[in-house]
Amino acid sequence: MITVISGTNRKNSECLRFATLYYEMLRESTEEDVKLLALEHIPHDWFFPEMYKQQAPSLKRLQDEYILPAQKFVFVMPEYNGGFPGALKLFIDACTVRKYTSNFQGKKAALVGIATGRAGNLRGMEHLTGVLNYLGTIVMPNKLPISRISDLKNGEGEVIDEGTLEAMRAQALEFVRF
Questions:
Q1: What is the three-class DSSP state of 69?
Q2: What is the residue range of 161's domain?
Q3: At what angle are helices 122-134 and 86-95 packed, to 10 degrees?
């Protein structure tokens, strides 16, 4: 199973638009089960001071459905202050409280960074690579920075830039084979 994670809890995010597009590309490219987990749609009742001792039922359900059965992850994440969103790091940390090695160890990941600026969240992808490597995740070397995302969409917010769409398709196909 492949889980695509939209890595921000910001409502109506551009990140979710790109993650959904990537999810659809994967579904067209593989017979594997593909799921989409949007951090903006999950309950946040698991964020409390004792979260590292007692896991909330809502997080356990998400972990059981999206994290533990997955063998591969695609992290789509916006650039926040030169890095990746704290909500994504907090989610990863919270999952590792239970079944530490079963969450990410020995699994594979692809990274997609999105930004309104020029670098496509290169720093955030490198930072997340370090975190995932620490957890034992094998990160695909071909990371995809997507820059100036406002210029890539039409008036309805759909990504129409053919170069970007082709780069996403190529990375998705490579990840299926990875």
A1: coil
A2: 2-177
A3: 10
How many domains would you assign to the chain? 1
Q: With CA atoms as reference, report the closest residue to 67 among 30, 96, 25.
A: 96
pTM for the whole thing?
0.94
Beta strands in 14-171 (DSSP E): 34-38, 72-78, 108-114, 138-139, 144-146
Residues 58-100 pLDDT 10s: 889 999 999 999 999 999 999 999 999 999 999 999 998 888 8
Contact, 134 vs 101, CB < 8 A?
A: no
Count CB-CB contacts under 10 A for residue 87. Answer: 19
Separation between Cα atoms, residue 163 and residue 12, nearest integer Å: 24
d(CA 106, CA 37): 20
Is there a contact between 124 and 79 (Cβ–Cβ < 8 Å)?
yes
What's the rounded Cα separation, in Å, for the pair 39 and 90? Answer: 11
Q: In which element (H, E) is residue 36 found? A: strand 34-38
CATH number at residue 160: 3.40.50.360
Name the token pair of 43.
């309950």
Q: Are 109 and 140 in contact (CB under 8 A)?
A: yes
